[in-house]
Every structure is written in C-alpha cells, then in structure tokens.
Amino acid sequence: MNDVMPRRGQDVVIGVDVGGTKIAAAIVDSRGEVSEHLISPTITTDPQSTLDSISTLIKEIIGKGKLEKKDIRGIGLGIPGLVDPIKGIGIASVNLQWQDVPVADELYKRLGIHCYIENDVRAAALGEIRYGKGKGLSNLIFLNIGTGVAAAIVLDGKIFRGQNGMAGEIGHAVVDIHGPRCKCGGYGCLEAIISGPAIIQRYQEKLSSDLSSASEFQSHQDNKEVTIQDLYQAAFQGEVFARQTVEEVSLYLANAIQFLSLAYDPQRIILGGGVAYASPFFLPYLLQAIERLAENSWVFRRLLNPDFIQITQLGVNSGILGAAALVP
User: How many C-beta neighbours within 10 Å does residue 170 have?
Assistant: First the structure.
C-alpha cells in the first residue's frame, strides 16, 4: 500500500469494498496507487444504518486526504450479492440483509458524489483488467475463494452476467453428490468443499476420525484455531492429514478450473480471495492437480500455458481496486 497523499486537485476515485463484517475503503489514483486506507465495522441492523456507516467512512477518508468534492471523480463500491449496476440497486445480499436497496441514490444524497456499484467479485475482475494481471486481456475469469466461492467471467472486455444475472455462481454447482451440506441448502456444492471454512472443517474431521495419529503439528494446534496458512504449511512439512486435505481440495478446485476453462476458453484465470493468497504453497499444490488433469486430457492440455493460472497481485487491496475500477 502506498501512503503518499494525493495532491489537492488530483483526479482520484474512492474505492469501497463492502463486506458482511467490515468495510474497507481508500483513495485510488489513476495509476492504481492506494492511500488513506481505512477499515470500519459493517453495521447490518438495517439498510439505512449500513449506508450511514459507509458514508461516514468515506467522509473520514475525504477529510484525511484533504480532498474537495471536485477532486473526486466518483465512488465505486463492490457489494456482496446480486446488484443492478445500471440502476445502482442492491437487489439481494444475504450478508448485508439487503433487498432492493437504492445504494447509489442513497449515498449520493449523503455525499453529493456520484456512486457506482457492482457485485464484489465482478468488481475485482474489472480491477484485474485495469490494475492487475488482466491488463491487456479481453477474456478472463476471476475466481474468488474465501469464505464463499464465486467466479466473474469477462468476455470481449465485458462482464458476462447471464439471463438472470447469476453467471459465475459456480460455488453452488454440485461437485460431490455425497458431499457436505452447503449454506444454500444443497449437498456437495463447490463452496462447501473448497471455501476457507470448508477446508478447515475437512481437516478437523480427518483429525477427529483418528486421534491416535495426532502429529506434533496437531498437538501444537490444540489451544489455537487452525488457519489456512497453518494447514498449507503443515501439508508442505508432511503432516499426513493436512497433506490429504490440501491435495483433495486442490483436485476439486482443479476440476472447477477445468470446467470453467472448457466452457469459456479464457486467456487467463486469476485466483483471489483469502484462501488463494493465504499461503505460498497454495498455487504449487493446485498446479500439481491441474497437471494430473492435463495428463489425461489433451483437450484441456491445449488451453494451458505457463501464465494461464495466476494469483492476484493486488492482494488485500483487490476489493478496493476493483471498486475503484467501476468509476468511468
């Protein structure tokens, strides 16, 4: 993150990444440099309170950056759930408890600055095109793997939404009919297997099934919560249950990437979200699984090249930069 303050009069935007538990926002200049990064809790008691918390954070950033309204080209917001970016409406968001909320209009009333909204994963894909590893590309897929799993599909430089705006909701595609229950109500959804919480749960179930094989790593974790970073580190060091978990999850993810690749034939697939950049060992395990699939399928093999699968370089600023990319 660059903490250099933008000059007064400079053409900047404000990017806002709205999550179910926290809101992150910052000033973003034309080069994609981020400053005045602030985070605040998301108030979800009702839509108006949430909008108030967003506008309060934005006002704080404007003041901290010593900006005037004329300096700000616009405000972009990445929002979880289904949105109408043309009308600026949050159609439905489970995380925010929203339904048909006129986000852009309400924030304009509070701030007097034009606001642009998009689904957070789709916004992140646009951020990759403008600032990240999608520069110069017109066809790509951004796959977000965190507490949830979803993809954003960019075809000919535009977000592909589908007939009902649901394109890319691959997290709720069933990949194992005997798999765990998903929060959507189904069983064996991709999200219920490869999301962060699902990966940890898979590991813990393996551990509880054979406590007699507990390793030194597991013993050290008895008094602390296991993280994705811990798990991949343990797998790399040879801990049996951690390695089994990581290899299984990597194969499910590799299959999902194969499906997306053959369906849309993108130039690149970019992976983001807390799971994707939690550990330097995430990508090597995934690429091993990809290679296994490619060995058995010349069709899939034709799509692959050394740069085909990438981890976002935007890291924790991915959501903010994606939101900033919404401002024309």
Answer: 21
Residue 4 lies in a domain: no
The arithmetic mean of pLDDT across residues 7-15, rounded, is 75
Cβ atoms within 10 Å of 11's Cβ, excluding its own: 11
CB 179 within 8 A of CB 249: no
Calpha distance 162→217 (Å, rounded) = 46
pLDDT tens track for 55-65? 999 999 999 99
Residue at 36 is within a domain? yes
pLDDT digits (tens, 9 = 90+) for 205-217: 998 887 655 555 5
Task: With H, G, I as helix, E, B as strand and everything else as coil, classify residue 138.
Answer: coil
- Return the number of other C-beta atoms located less than 10 Å from residue 94's C-beta: 14
| CA atoms within a 13 Å half-sphere pointing along the CA-CB vector of 101 | 23
- DSSP H or E segment with residue 3: none
pLDDT score at 218 = 58
Residues 175, 295 within the same domain: yes
Nearest alpha carbon to residue 158 among 129, 183, 178: 129
Using alpha carbons, select from 16, 27, 85, 84 the residue that is nearest to residue 50: 16
Q: Is the pLDDT of residue 7 over 50?
A: no
What's the predicted TM-score (pTM) here? Answer: 0.90
On whether both 117 and 154 belong to a single domain, the answer is no
Query: How does DSSP assign 266-280, residue by residue?
Result: -SEEEEESTTTTS-T
Q: Which two tokens stand for residue 255?
A: 């299959």
